[in-house]
Amino acid sequence: MKPKIHPSAEISESAKIGSNTKIWNFSRVMENAKIGKNCVIGSWVYIDRNVKVGNNVKIHNRALLYNGLIVEDNVFIGPAVCFTNDKNPRQNLTRDLTKINFRVKKGASIGASSVILPDINIGEYAMIGAGSVVTKDVPDYALVYGNPARINGYVCKCGSKLNEVPKNDKKILMKCGNCKRVITIKPQYK
Fold it and tell me: Among candidates 74, 6, 76, 68, which has minimal Cα distance to 33?
């Protein structure tokens, strides 16, 4: 199936849009951006040049994805999420931002109005609470929220909070009360 693009959306000729992807009104997709299959891009979303978005990604209204960002498959990006790309912005300076890169790994969810600073990696199936300011890398399965965002537990692939099981060697085993999956967590910052 061809992508479905609202007539008011502005899509660069060099952008690549996967099949069955929907892009809603007033969104912009810039030069050399790549968006995978079966994605939903809400209204007023800005996808900067060279951004890569995987398959089955949902990006809600007014999200801003800037140059250097890679979004893997099955990611949820809530409304008004902003991925910043300049650590030291100044009005009168043009910086070389080509070395900035950040990644949202598969299955991660980012809550509404969160701000993600440059060069930050968000782990697989991690969950960022609404309104968070993410200032450092987020480990796989971590539940983070606040300003600055801090680990407040871990979540399962199904989205439920994980419960710690008695320690086995130096690993932390977590069990989901919902789907009963057991996940090994690498200890990280709090």
Answer: 68
